[in-house]
Amino acid sequence: MKRQGSILPGKSRVYRQWDSQMDKILSRVLLDQIVQGNKGDGDWKTQAYQAVVDQLRTDLAINVTRDNVKNRLRAWKKRYAVIADIQKRSGLSFWDEDKKMIVVTADNMSDWQSYCNDHPDARSYANTYIENWDDLVLLCARDRAVGDGAEHYSEANASMADEDDMEDVGSASTFGNSSAHGSKSQGKKSIGEVSSESRKRAKKDSQVGDALYMVANSLSSYLQSKKKEEEPRYTGKEIYDVICEIPGLTHLEVAKAAMKYRSGDPEQFKLLLEIPKEDRRIFVECFLGEP
């Protein structure tokens, strides 16, 4: 079934709830897109956004646009920026890496309230599990380090609906306009002041961001190679022996089939092994007839 959008109270537009399953697909596809070279400094290529759109449609029968995906990434950047700022503040120990959350207790409540007075965007993250935090680090850290992070209190806030996980499916351009949520989040500091602070941190963050980007590349490459290693690989002799057991094939057909299976998709040979032996001759003949 297709997932339907919902209408927020007091709103006439339709919003879609992004859930953890959708976010996992988004992370997986984008990490793969890094490996394919579809990520630049600060932005993704159109192919990357389209790959997410296609995968969500294939896996979950959900129809979103490339702009919807871009806006979800803006929400992620905001989330990363808020938490990263807390982590970098000396004397603050709210973030628990094991729990993947900002932990606020009676002991540090006073410090937390003081911090939120200057950074109201942080308030909603108290004691909230950030399920995809590791993915946010890999996908968002480098963008922020090279200057994109300056948007996290302006563009990122403007990209949000009334909830972090609500995506406008009526018009993607809505996210380019300021919202009530965005205007409230300015707090005591102006956008210019926050942007200035971000620029001051950019030089230091750049090295960290570059390192994290390399980690993302390495991780994705490792996962790809690991997947290939786990796929069963059959030797030429194993393939030849199986085909020789199929009655009715000529010596030429056996040789051609063995060479074609050896150089082709391993899944084709796996399928041959899974079908009944009495049906394998027809399967091989059809396989040999393919271009």
Integer-rounded radius of gyration:
26 Å
- Low-pLDDT segments: 148-163, 170-191
- Provide mean pLDDT, rounded: 74
Strand percent estimate: under 5%
Largest sheet: 3 strands, antiparallel
Question: How would you describe the overall organization of this protein?
Answer:
Mean pLDDT is 74; it is low at 148-163 and 170-191. This protein has helices at 20-35, 46-60, 66-88, 109-118, 133-145, 155-158, 180-184, 191-230, 236-244, 251-263, 266-274, 280-289; strands at residues 6-7, 14-17, 95-96, 101-102, 166-168. β3 and β4 (101-102) form a beta hairpin. α2 crosses α3, α3 (66-88) crosses α5 and α10 (251-263) crosses α12 (280-289). The longest helix has 40 residues, at 191-230. It is elongated and about 85 Å long. The strands form 2 sheets. It has a 3-stranded antiparallel sheet with strand order 1-2-5. Strands 3-4 form a two-stranded antiparallel sheet. With 291 residues, it is mainly α. The chain has 2 domains: 6-228, no CATH class; 236-289, no CATH class. 57% of the residues lie in helices and 4% in strands. InterPro entries: Myb/SANT-like_dom. It comes from Linum tenue. This is Myb/SANT-like domain-containing protein. Residues 156-206 are annotated as: Disordered.
Short description:
The chain has 291 residues and is mostly helical.
List keywords for this structure.
12 helices; 291 residues; three-stranded antiparallel beta sheet; two-stranded antiparallel ribbon; 2 domains; 4% strand; Myb/SANT-like_dom; mainly alpha; 57% helix; Myb/SANT-like domain-containing protein
